[in-house]
Specification:
The protein is mainly β. It has a single domain, classed as Jelly Rolls, CATH 2.60.120.
Length: about 190
Amino acid sequence: MKIDIESSELDGIKVIKPQVFQDSRGLFMEMYRKDIFMENFLDIDIVQVNFSRSKKNTVRGLHFQWEPPMGKLMTVMSGEAFLVAVDIRPNSKYLGEWYGIKISSEDRKFVWAPAGFARGFAALSDFVDIQYFTTGIYNEDCESGVRWNDPKIDIRWPVQNPELSDKDITAQSLDSWLQTEESKFFNI
């Protein structure tokens, strides 16, 4: 397996393009292989795989977990989405900065965002299926979110008037998160 890695301007965020074998029958690709990722300085220990389906104009996020810390390797299985990661590490020089990229099932790219980043996405196609590999087992007692439209972060979402969950509508601001004891889990 060969992978190409693009670093983003935001420290820790990587865009990964795996090798795809395609012929008249269809295609095959290895989505994750620990040894190849480690050879490329991505020491990612996957412990859980999740799947999400969303209809067009849905925004999910910005979500994160601190105990255990959870990094996410996300990809679009069908459709197109705008994937976002926001640095929420209190002592980071990139605190509050975000990275966003359109990913589709056609380009077969992945986005890696380590623990200390809030992640989310906007569904751009009629339906989008997203698979994400996580480095921590889900713990509802130690997860939270930052408001998707926090003006301090100012993400330029490619959707207008998105459909949101109650949890995302009532999510805290980045400033509120930084006032919590839990934010100290992400000190770097």
